[in-house]
Amino acid sequence: MPGRHFVKFTFLKLDPAWRRLEPGERARDKQEFAAACNDFAEDHFLRAYSLVGTRGDADLMLRTAAPRLELIHELHVVLNQSGLMRYADISHSFLAMTKESVYSDEPQPLVPREGSERRYLIVYPMWKRRDWYRLPEEERMRIMRDHIETGRRHPSIEINTAYSFGLDDQEFVVSFNADDPGEFLDLVQELRGTESSAYTQSETPIFTCISTSVEQALDALDGESAPVSATVG
Predict the structure, then answer these.
(1) Could you tell me which of 15, 114, 26, 108 has the C-alpha nearest to residue 63?
(2) Quick one: how far is CA 189 from the chain centroid?
(3) What span, in angstroms and rounded, lies between the C-alpha atoms of 90 and 84?
(4) What is the mean pLDDT of the chain?
(5) pTM for this one?
């Protein structure tokens, strides 16, 4: 569909054996990985996030978006050629597409917010109960208006909803740009009391991701910076 973008969330978990490699080898691995990411980011959307210290099953997340799925596929083929990926598992992976919501009356860009400077991105897959889809359209609109109004009481939280129906296991991938995790906690607690929450089947696992550059996310994996002069192998 014109304007829609594929969105991919890729969570990586590093084998501790990688941190026991020589510093020069780790530096080359990081530079290879960063070069592939930065090359993709020249023409397409790519943001990196660190999960070191926030999750036990993921260390780094890449959020990518492109108008064609093949472009994301090609990026991951190149990433798989890097030395870092020989020591990495994809612990979680979510594929979705952007799509205009039928419930919102606000402008809805079909590409991710490239300009968001929020410090955190909180991400989770989501499923609605099947009886939600059997409700009359006007009833769903009424319930979602209350849900949306609750979110508007927290204007510093930016929501990004992507749709996965038929593309991946989940129905939605929901992500929130936030500067204050405590405010997001309060928002989610408030949403638990809304009528719409009763129709949620699942919204886990939840990932609290720290926004950073690709290079900084990679340096967080071993606590060392890759020297600029290191040769990419």
Answers:
(1) 114
(2) 21
(3) 12
(4) 91
(5) 0.91
